[in-house]
Design a protein that fits this description.
With 317 residues, this protein is of the alpha/beta class. It starts with a helix and ends with a helix. The protein contains eleven helices and ten strands. Helices cover 41% and strands 17% of the residues. An eight-stranded parallel beta barrel has the order 1-2-5-6-7-8-9-10, surrounded by seven helices.
């Protein structure tokens, strides 16, 4: 498999990549196939596969005690990656998260991915456990994603958690997340960029941004990153809105602003089809402007839908 950073450095023009959310556990494998098939003829440079932490529930007993039940709501990252590799000729970039995992578990997952021939990952902290107000790491895990990046860098040097092991060196290219409108936990954008720099200094090869709907915020973010000494490629992340309802759900879920011009245009239409078209047209305009500003790639958050993304990519690349 080709490393993402090599594609970024060697490509003569911008390319598209996509991010998929795995289907829920118990779904037929064809649900996964159907989410990928419409994208394959777009010749994606790579496809990211998100990772979701296990959820914990406490079931009360008759005697007043509780049983701890750990629930996995989606198939494992390894299962998803293996399934895609078996069916499609496309480079896969799995997400690896800190949340809900010990350092030993994360190391084992990384070594399994290496064993499968995967040499691209995105290193993320992950969200807080449902019901918790703030992120709490596993007792033997990582609090911050830069710590995860450091572990991957050490594995690339053949350094394992157990110093008695003399194993092979991995060869991972590492992507990390950046937030043009800052991570919701950061006190300000400046401190958030400093945290991003720690991830890059730990060994990250490139940055993929959170979705945004105002390109100027991405440009300002990129400029501030360069001023802070972050020199790796920064890929814009994009998602077309598809309904007016998302004017509430997207800002709540991702802690970002939606330009008033886009809000006004969506609210002008009662028809869902018309709202859908507005989202596509806005994203096309975003992409064309970004390409004029020489971004290295366009990364699309598909969220299980591919028809609008297909139209956007065909219109701009």
């Amino acid at each position: 498999m080709t490393k993402v950073i090599d594609k970024l450095n060697n490509s003569q023009s911008a390319f598209a990549s996509f991010e998929l959310v795995p289907p829920l556990k118990g779904s037929d494998v064809n649900v996964l196939y159907k989410s990928i098939e419409p994208l394959i003829d777009l010749n994606p440079a790579f496809i990211n596969v998100t990772c979701h932490r296990d959820e914990v529930q406490y079931i009360p007993n008759d005697n007043g005690t509780f049983n701890k039940l750990t629930l996995s709501k989606r198939p494992s990252t390894l299962a998803i990656v293996a399934t895609i590799m078996q069916r499609f000729d496309v480079d896969i970039v799995p997400h690896v998260i800190c949340g809900g995992a010990s350092m030993a578990k994360i190391e084992s997952e990384l070594l399994d991915l290496h064993f499968m021939g995967i040499n691209n990952v995105v290193a993320l902290r992950g969200d807080a456990e449902p019901g918790q107000k703030r992120f709490i790491p596993d007792p033997d895990g990582f609090m911050h994603s830069n710590e995860l990046v450091s572990m991957i860098s050490r594995l690339n040097n053949g350094e394992y958690l157990d110093p008695r092991i003399s194993g092979v060196s991995t060869d991972f290219c590492v992507g990390v997340a950046g937030y043009p409108e800052k991570h919701y936990e950061a006190p300000n954008l400046e401190s958030d960029i400093m945290h991003l720099k720690r991830k890059v200094d730990a060994g990250a090869h490139y940055v993929v941004s959170q979705m945004f709907f105002d390109n100027q915020k991405f440009y300002d973010f990129s400029n501030r990153c360069r001023e802070a000494g972050i020199t790796v490629p920064i890929i814009p992340g994009l998602k077309p809105l598809s309904t007016a309802k998302q004017l509430q759900t997207i800002p709540q879920a991702f802690h970002l602003d939606i330009p008033n011009e886009l809000v006004t245009e969506l609210m002008r239409h009662d028809s869902k089809d018309a709202q859908y078209e507005v989202g596509i047209e806005w994203c096309i305009a975003q992409c064309l402007d970004l390409l004029e500003h020489d971004v290295p790639a366009l990364h699309f958050y598909t969220m299980g839908r591919a028809d609008n993304v297909r139209r956007i990519v065909k219109a701009v690349l």
